[in-house]
């Protein structure tokens, strides 16, 4: 895909390189009007990412643009909106988190006949007056107005937007009355009402939206479980669930149920009203539950979060019986012990992520965990794991229990923070070639443990907090070329000079410590590339760490050869930003 | 360069560019035209006309084809694009799937 459109990519980079390059093409009106909309959209996105966009530049793509995403752009105000309102074929507009935007700014999009999707969530200044401007958009299908200044009155007005299918009213003071006025929106299939003022008695109205397949009523006073025939995803986090609403079917064909922090009554605890055959995502973290019998029939479960619930070893058997498809299991902050983990041994062939932090498990559990062949990520923080097992037969001889995990071929992440593991018992880790994230935290680690930085060939993140490390240990350290981030918080013996020296030698590595925080390459974050070729991109993704966007700035393009030569000697920290390849080579 | 190994690309103004077949094949669109079964004029005469692409843009495209081949074989150089050409070139590149 990327290879296929490489020239388009090169053109975008060249077009959006600087203010001057924009000036060179912005008057080519005939070309701009012929631009296919997906190219116009890409051009606008790139201009926005390069921070080259200003209101009157919006004018040039007036006849071609279909999708505009300016979310989080603080500059957006009525002037920007005036230009956006003139877009002839605008289909989707995202201006969420634009804090300067007010109701009068919304006036510009009033009457647009092509607009189908509008997101003004978290534009705090938009009020009921803004909603009135929207009522003249006859084609609106998706509307997000979460956490704006709109009141229940404004929500009532939405009832005239008959084409609405997707409505996000999160965080708005929607009342029972306002909700019932929305009954006329018969096409609605996605409704977000978290944090609204819907009362328990008003929740009967929810039955009047038969087409809903997504409903979020988290943090409301609703106590009745809605029984809708097409509901697939339901969020009732932090609700008290004490009964169900009468619906056409016996149970709700849910795929995803999130009831984090919810309280269940004796009657609802067995979840008899939930169709279990399709349910693959269940989040009951922090929920107040006493029986877990409902698990028995949930054969499709892939994601299960039971953290901070009352589940204990005696209910694990139920879990094991539905473990066949499980990929993600969270049992942290429960009373599950090593013998509970033993019940799961061999029953969860597809499990990839397992969290047992804040439980009482000890080293015995490690041998059970080693029977879960697909595990990629294990969280064992705040447990009783020591890393040693004393062999009773021969007094004094010890077995390093982490050796057991060596059978896990896919293991990428291991969290051992706040356990009793120390330098010695961590030794088996040197035989974990695929490990890319390792987290340890305890004062019993010393300079010896830093050696994993060079031993583990794929290590990307290494967190060694509260350890007794010295500056000298860093002097001869050669971290793996893949390393992106090292967390040294709480290592009180390290000095600023020592860390600076490390940063100077490995500027591509992000270092965290109380004394300072080095991002690996601050100039590149959130700024796209001026030169993006697939091969180069791959190289740089290996070396760099902070960049979450796929873009980076190749600083070589910003400067002429002479300027570069001058810069080379100005500061070493600077030079690293435009010679990542060479610095990488000299490191390895 | 043997005649069988070349392809002729004709711009909107009628300007002809004769380039190596391998270079032209960098474009997915041209590849499809030249390799599609049946007796299309394009595959018979090894000639493709682009009534939508002007001469300077088609010249740039041809340069790009050769640059791409070099790049793919490991020669990492920059391909400079004048900002004035970006819009038209982008459209041509989009059409040619290159």
UniProtKB/TrEMBL annotation, chain A:
SMART domains, per the entry: LRR_CC
Pfam families: LRR_6 (PF13516)
Alphabetized InterPro entries for the sequence: Leu-rich_rpt, Leu-rich_rpt_Cys-con_subtyp, LRR_dom_sf, Zyg-11_UBL_adapter
Residues spanning the signal sequence: none
SUPFAM superfamilies reported for this sequence: RNI-like
Entry coiled-coil feature ranges: none
Superkingdom to which the source organism belongs: Eukaryota
Protein name: F-box/LRR-repeat protein 14 isoform X1
Record gene name: LOC111479466
From TrEMBL, chain B:
Pfam families xref list: Skp1_POZ
GO biological process: jasmonic acid mediated signaling pathway; ubiquitin-dependent protein catabolic process
Record's keyword annotation contains Oxidoreductase: no
Biochemical pathway: Protein modification; protein ubiquitination
Record's keyword terms, sorted: Nucleus
InterPro entries from the UniProt entry: ELC1, SKP1-like, SKP1/BTB/POZ_sf, Skp1_comp_POZ
Domain named SKP1 component POZ: residues: 6-69
Subcellular location field: Nucleus
An example Gene Ontology CC term for this record: nucleus
Family, similarity comment: Belongs to the SKP1 family.
Protein name per Swiss-Prot or TrEMBL: Elongin-C
Organism: Cucurbita argyrosperma subsp. sororia
Gene behind the chain: Eloc
């Amino acid at each position: 895909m990327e290879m296929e459109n490489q020239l388009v990519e090169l053109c975008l980079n060249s077009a959006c390189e600087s203010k001057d390059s924009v000036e060179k093409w912005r008057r080519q009106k005939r070309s701009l009007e012929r631009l296919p909309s997906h190219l116009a959209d890409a051009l606008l996105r790139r201009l926005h990412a390069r921070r080259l966009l200003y209101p009157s530049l919006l004018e040039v793509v007036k006849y071609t643009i279909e999708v505009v995403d300016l979310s989080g752009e603080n500059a957006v105000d009525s002037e920007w909106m005036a230009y956006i309102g003139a877009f002839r074929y605008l289909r989707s507009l995202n201006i969420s988190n634009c804090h300067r935007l007010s109701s009068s700014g919304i006036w510009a999009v009033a009457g647009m006949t092509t607009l189908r999707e509008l997101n003004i969530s978290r534009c705090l200044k938009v009020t009921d007056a803004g909603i009135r401007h929207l009522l003249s958009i006859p084609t609106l299908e998706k509307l997000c107005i979460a956490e704006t200044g709109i009141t229940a009155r404004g929500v009532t007005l939405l009832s005239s937007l008959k084409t609405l299918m997707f409505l996000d009213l999160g965080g708005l003071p929607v009342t029972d009355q306002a909700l019932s006025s929305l009954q006329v929106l018969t096409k609605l299939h996605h409704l977000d009402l978290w944090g609204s003022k819907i009362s328990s008695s008003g929740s009967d109205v929810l039955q009047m939206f038969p087409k809903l397949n997504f409903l979020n009523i988290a943090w409301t006073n609703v106590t009745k479980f809605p029984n809708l025939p097409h509901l697939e995803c339901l969020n009732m986090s932090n609700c008290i669930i004490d009964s169900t609403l009468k619906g056409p079917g016996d149970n709700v064909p849910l795929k995803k149920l999130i009831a984090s922090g919810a309280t269940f009554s004796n009657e609802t605890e067995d979840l008899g009203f939930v169709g279990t055959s399709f349910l693959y995502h269940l989040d009951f973290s922090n929920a107040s539950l006493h029986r877990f019998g409902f698990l028995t029939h949930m054969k499709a479960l892939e994601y299960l979060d039971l953290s901070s619930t009352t589940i204990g070893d005696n209910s694990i058997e139920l879990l094991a019986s539905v473990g066949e498809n499980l990929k993600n299991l969270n049992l942290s902050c429960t009373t599950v012990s090593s013998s509970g983990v033993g019940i799961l041994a061999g029953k969860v062939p597809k499990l990839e992520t397992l969290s047992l932090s804040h439980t009482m498990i000890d080293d015995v559990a490690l041998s059970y965990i080693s029977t879960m062949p697909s595990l990629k990520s294990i969280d064992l923080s705040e447990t009783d794991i020591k890393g040693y097992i004393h062999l009773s037969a021969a007094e004094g001889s010890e077995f390093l229990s982490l050796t057991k995990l060596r059978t896990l071929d896919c293991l990428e992440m291991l969290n051992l923070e706040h356990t009793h593991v120390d330098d010695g018992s961590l030794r088996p880790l040197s035989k974990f070639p695929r490990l890319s994230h390792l987290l340890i935290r305890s004062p019993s680690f010393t300079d010896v443990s830093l050696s994993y930085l060079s031993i583990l060939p794929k290590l990307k993140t290494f967190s060694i907090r509260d350890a007794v490390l010295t500056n000298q240990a860093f002097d001869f350290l050669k971290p793996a070329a893949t390393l992106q981030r090292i967390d040294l918080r709480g290592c009180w013996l390290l000095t600023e000079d020592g860390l600076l020296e490390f940063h100077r030698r490995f500027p591509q590595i992000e270092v965290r410590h109380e004394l300072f925080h080095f991002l690996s390459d601050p100039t590149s974050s959130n700024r796209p590339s001026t030169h993006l070729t697939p091969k180069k991109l791959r190289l740089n993704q290996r070396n760099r760490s902070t960049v979450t966007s796929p873009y980076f700035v190749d600083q070589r393009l910003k400067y002429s050869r002479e300027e570069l030569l001058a810069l080379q000697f100005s500061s070493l920290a600077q030079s690293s930003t435009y010679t990542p390849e060479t610095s990488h080579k000299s490191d390895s | 360069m043997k005649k069988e190994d070349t392809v002729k690309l004709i711009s909107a103004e009628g300007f002809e560019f004769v380039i190596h077949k391998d270079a032209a094949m960098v474009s997915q669109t041209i590849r499809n035209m030249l390799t599609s079964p049946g007796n299309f004029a394009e595959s018979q005469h090894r000639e493709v006309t682009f009534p939508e692409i002007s001469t300077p843009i088609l010249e740039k495209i041809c340069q790009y084809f050769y640059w791409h081949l070099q790049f793919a074989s490991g020669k990492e150089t920059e391909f400079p694009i004048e900002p004035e050409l970006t819009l038209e070139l982008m459209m041509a590149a989009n059409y040619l799937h290159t």
